[in-house]
From TrEMBL:
This is Muconolactone Delta-isomerase. Belongs to the muconolactone Delta-isomerase family. It comes from the Bacteria. Keywords: Aromatic hydrocarbons catabolism, Isomerase. It comes from Amycolatopsis australiensis. The lineage of its organism: Bacteria, Bacillati, Actinomycetota, Actinomycetes, Pseudonocardiales. SUPFAM superfamilies: Dimeric alpha+beta barrel.
Length: 91
C-alpha cells in the first residue's frame, strides 16, 4: 500500500537536536534501502518533506512514523494512494 506523507518539522527554539537529526537521517536511509520509504523530497523553503511510503498496512505506517527520532517535533499529514486508470504504467 502506498501512502503520500507530508512531514512538517518544528524544533523548539534553543533545543539541541543534533543527535536526533543524525539518528533521523540514519533511519531514513535504512527505510529507503529497505524499499519502505520510496520517495523523499524537500519542500522548498520549509523544514518539511513530501514522502511516499510503501507498507503493508495503516498500522505498519503508524508504527514507522511514530518511531522516527524527530516524530515528537513533526506535524504529519497522510494521504492513501490508489492506482490512477490513466497512468501510463497502468495501461
Ligand atoms: O528533514 C526532514 O524533512 C525530516 C526528516 C525526514 C527525513 C530526515 O532525515 O529528516
Amino acid at each position: 500500500m502506498l501512502f503520500h506523507v507530508r512531514m512538517d518539522v518544528t524544533i523548539p527554539p534553543g533545543l539541541d537536536v543534533t543527535d536526533r537529526v543524525a539518528a533521523e537521517k540514519a533511519r531514513a536511509l535504512e527505510l529507503q534501502r529497505a524499499g519502505v520509504w520510496v520517495h523523499l523530497w524537500r519542500i522548498v523553503g520549509r523544514y518539511s518533506n513530501f514522502s511516499v511510503f510503501d507498507v503493508a498496512s495503516n498500522d505498519e505506517l503508524h508504527g514507522i512514523l511514530s518511531a522516527l527520532p524527530l516524530y515528537p517535533f513533526m506535524r504529519i499529514e497522510i494521504t492513501p494512494l490508489a492506482t490512477h486508470p490513466s497512468e501510463l504504467a497502468a495501461q
